[in-house]
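Researcher: Quick one. two chains, 1414 residues in total.
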Amino acid sequence: MAELVYDKTGRLLFTKEMKREYTILFPTMLPVHFGLMARIIENEGYRVEMLTTNHRGIVDEGLKYVHNDTCYPALLVIGQLIDAVKSGKYDMHKVALLITQTGGGCRASNYIHLLRKALEKAGLSYVPVISVNMSGLEPNPGFRLGLNTLRKAVFAMMYGDIIVQTSNQVRPYEVNSGETDRVIQAVSDHLLSEMEQGRGLSFKSMVANFDHIVSAFRAIPTAGEPKVRVGVVGEIYIKYSPLGNNNLEQFLLDEGAEPVVPGLTDFIIFKIYNRVVDVDIYGGKWIKKKGCLILQRYVEKCQRAMIAAIERGGFRAPGTFQDLRRLIQGYLGEGNKMGEGWLLTAEMLELIHSGTPNIVCTQPFGCLPNHIVGKGMIRKLKDDYPNSNIVAIDYDPGATKINQENRIKLMLANARGLAKQTRHEAEAPQPAGTAAE
Amino acid sequence: MSLRIGIDIGSTTVKVVVLNEENQLLFRSYERHYSKARERAAETLRSISEMLAGQRVRMVITGSAGLGVAKAAGIDFVQEVYATAAAVNTYIPGTDAVIELGGEDAKIIFFGGALEERMNGSCAGGTGAFIDQMATLMNVTAGELDALALKHEKIYPIASRCGVFAKSDIQPILNQGGRKEDVAASIFQAVVDQTVAGLTQGRPLKGKIVFLGGPLHFLMGLRQRFAETLHLDAQHAIFPEDGDCFAGIGAALCALDYQEQPFDDLLKRLEESVGDVGIVDTMPPLFTCQEEYDAFTARHNATHPPQVDIHSYTGDAWLGIDAGSTTTKMALITGEGGLLYTYYHSNQGNPVSIVLEQLKEIYSLCGGRITIKGAAVTGYGEDLIQNAFSCDLGLVETVAHYNAARHFNPDVDFIIDIGGQDMKCFKIRNGAVDSILLNEACSSGCGSFIETFAKALGYDIASFAKLGLFAAHPVNLGSRCTVFMNSSVKQAQKDGASVEDISAGLSISIVKNAVYKVIRAANADDLGRHIVVQGGTFHNDAVLRAFEQELGRTVTRPTIAGIMGAFGAALAARELHLEQSALLSPQALDRFSHTAKPVTCNLCTNHCSLTVNTFDAGRSFISGNRCSRPLGKEKTEQPDLMRYKYQKLRALQGRGSGSGVRGKIGIPFGLNMYENLPFWFAFFTHLNFEVILSPESSRKLYLKGQQTIPSDTVCYPAKLLHGHMQELIDQGVDAVWYPCMSYNNDEGIGDNHYNCPVVAYYPELLAANMPSLKQTRYLDPYVGLWRRRDFEKRISQLMYDTFDIPKKETAAAVKAAYDAYEAYVHDVRETGRQYIAYARERRMPIIVACGRPYHIDPEINHGINDLITSFGFVLVTEDALSYLEGYAPRKVLNQWTFQSRMYNAARYVCTQPDMQVVQLVSFGCGTDAITTDELRSILEEGGKLYTQLKIDDISNLGAVKIRIRSLMAAMDARKDA
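Model:
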């Protein structure tokens, strides 16, 4: 059995022996993206498992081990991990936990520390925690992802985004219930088997894969009138994770709406671009800026290719990162970078501009950045775009679904009223899958 | 066309409405449903079936609790705000805005332009339910509360965000003898402020405003407050006749969009859906059988003090009084601790008359046989009662409770007391109260919550609690504050949970709240081995059982759990060993009279709301004060670094050494300006601007800007900025300077040097939410001060672009600014050192207040510094000590400058025997969710006590006093040990 080894600050390391013996658990945020990631890491010889658990016990564990005033995502992520460790499904001495670490002035940067504190409190301090971050923090001898893996990770993110972007436009209209999800599974399998064989890792083959994905969704038979589109923005975990947002997307589907959820790519570019902006605003090494710019341009190139593929397939495509930068002018400075920062407001603007003025802005109760970039901007958006119809929903262990759903229902009632009002004036919203505006 | 039926199912009431083709109201009803919403609605429909039977009708359900019913019965549903808007459009055209208050929801609808609707967020508490709860607190009906409010003379400031906050404001006013009439009106005013602050979010309430919903329909006092606050005359404040069921009417109007159906079918579907139980998150039962319960009660009833017959006993006795927030408790004991007499009763808003009555009763029972040799008082009303009846001793609650608990279990190491309004937990170490945990305003809702709920459902508390004992499937209601529980209950009701299951669920919730929210324990060992539970709420067997189940161990509940404070006070009175008690004699009691008069103290800017109590037309007692000045004594001038810094910063306005020719530049005095002002003042005066500092914060200033606050859960220090900004605009400054700062100064003591997101970006929030900022030149650029050269380059460019200032001139100003800031920092440290030396010369204890720079604002800290120094402490702040320790790794990411200072100050305090830390935490501060635990562990590892003071816009210092006095008691005990 692997020995417990600590570094000089007293941090428990994930050793090479552990790589052989341990199962690495990590929380879900975006099921499609993270599912792809899990398989990629698996192919590197790790045993990994993405936790898809969703029950009250998770919240209870979180409440027990995390300060209750800490943001809800921390409580859920940590609750989910501890709940899994204790579930009896794994050998408690042979699991490690993996969590992402973002850095930045938001309290979210503290998740990994809160997780360690919680493990200690739960008497599980022998469970190693692996940090995944972009800053080279907290290295582990047994967990090293090579450049090749990182490249695959970027690809996985792009694939995840294009799958989600297109499938979301098909699912509300699918004729055969469940077909969209089956296609998601099939294209994921296809992509992974390609990667396993070392194929699909050039820019060119990525574009080919984009087209493959889009046409797979294009081929799904659809029917029905266009539905009210509802954008979902917010704090990143709550926005994406069904555990965090009480299955918001499913709720919207059940209510007869089409959810529009902006992708992860912009967030990644945003995080890279922040470093560029920091140098511009405050000064700093040009080399750091240069390095970030190179990385940013590469991801942006991938993004443009993705958008082009979506458009080729006849779906409604999101704007580019540069589009978002243009939209935010007059609202927030680009220095506003904590949490989702200016990007969140920019996403709302993009949704409004692309004919989706109905928006659910999700956040954990008391989310600090969202006081500013979420709730704080709704007034101005309403002034500038009287037809915008934004509802801010707080998520928290005590908040009840009924209150949240009632408010979303109000937004939906408004959306339908609005659509009725403007139906004869404006063109009807375009049906899913026809050319984007 | 057919008749249309609208059914509005709210959290507490059902409204049924029938409209004919001409939109005329044929029938309307408004009834409480006592958590049986479906049954109630079906019954009402049956009662009017004559009108409807055999017809085809259109029926639509609306309301917060109506969704589940609609789904189960397959009846159409519309959202209630939407329905209300439809009704107002039809019946009251030309309306500009609607304010609707319901049982638990508050809504505003703006007409004109695009329809805009808002509902209260999940934190903002209920309004109707809130008023009910307040009425219960004052022991009147909602109707009586209304009648009282109409006779008010004065309005007290009461926190308006959430019911729980307001409650902790009202309690002390009542306990200190404030007039019920004034309190009643203040409660309504709080509802008004909450609605305006929480819901308008920057959009002015003007023009013709329609008021709807039950509370506004029935409560004239509430109407009056709204009309007065919004400056509305009778033409602009519309209270429609059927304002209580407008949502129902709207639903009926909306029914036009839906299919016609046979009424009998619809009714049948509604009736059949009754008894349909949804999926509810449930927990195991408290007791599975009677035997289990009997064994449980037998075990607990074994812990009781000996009863002594007051009618036959002869000898000495000692009296303890616990003047709690909602109840008054008294105990008369013998020298051996035997109980002669006990009393436990709601104080009905007037503890003085209750105690008077009881003292008379006790004296008459004592006859000539029993001599009271001492009397002690504890609890919220301690000062008032002690002064009124001349008791020998007043002691802090925590000590009184420990006295009592020790009496029953000498090894006690953990005490938890859940009362009507508050929850206290304390650990005992080395024979002294060591760490204290009180529920914060947010997690209150203790015993009185169950009581209010029981009443709302039509039960008294005792029988409601009993219902839960054998409930088969207690509902899991989560573990948060009252407001959240209310909506959890609503959800459970919607899903068809029984009253029994809800009762048990509420008891379990209270326990979870205590264990996880207040105590923050992970397991039973975190508490202790010998746990004593007490307080009135533990008389409730369901709560007691839930507590034992949650911890997985047995605890001690004395039979006198409800009067432990009084019992402990009596024990303390006995320990005084007095020859004679000063307690008022029976003769004096006969002459006793008490009047209370509210006044506002004008001796300083705090403007405390004082209550002057006069006893026997001669003796007087003033309460509500924060310092000793209104008592006729000079304010104690103990060294106080918070005050020093505040005065120093306030002086930074005007032209300084410059000419002021470039115009007036306004700087809002809030958030990080409390740190950066010395810098900017020097910077701008050197550039020959006149610096206009916004006025001192006050409640009035806050109200001035509150309409533009977009997020009601942000911290109070941030909310105040709206008022500061408005003041600057009103003063007509040429420009306002309030830069965004992601980063703070790098002091080298953390892993990074961020500001929190709110401090960093609030300037941009103001720009987006305060339209009046367009009247001035608002400058909120991004700046960073820690890279001096880069800063100089960028600010010079900015000053050139904005004001045409030559870059050289700016460069000189930058130098002056850095120098001024350094001088300020040095001065704070130096003054701190002098204060510490002062304390040490006089052997005075030192308190280190750890908070943010802006916590020195008296409107934010409510005079906590005066309170601390009035107890004989010398007060210094974290920034005077933080530089004395270097960088050290922490268990959390130490990335905020202000927060890093607290860690360092705490580390330094651990090395100093005469210092203790008090942490100031603003309610809603997200970063402090992280710092509090870390600070506690630093201090406890260093052998220090941890005391946290949570502050919000509430000005009640009662809880703060308890903590500080408990801290003093613990310090004394340590000294003795």
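Chain B touches chain A through 84 residues (CB under 8 Å).
Researcher: Thanks, that's what I needed.
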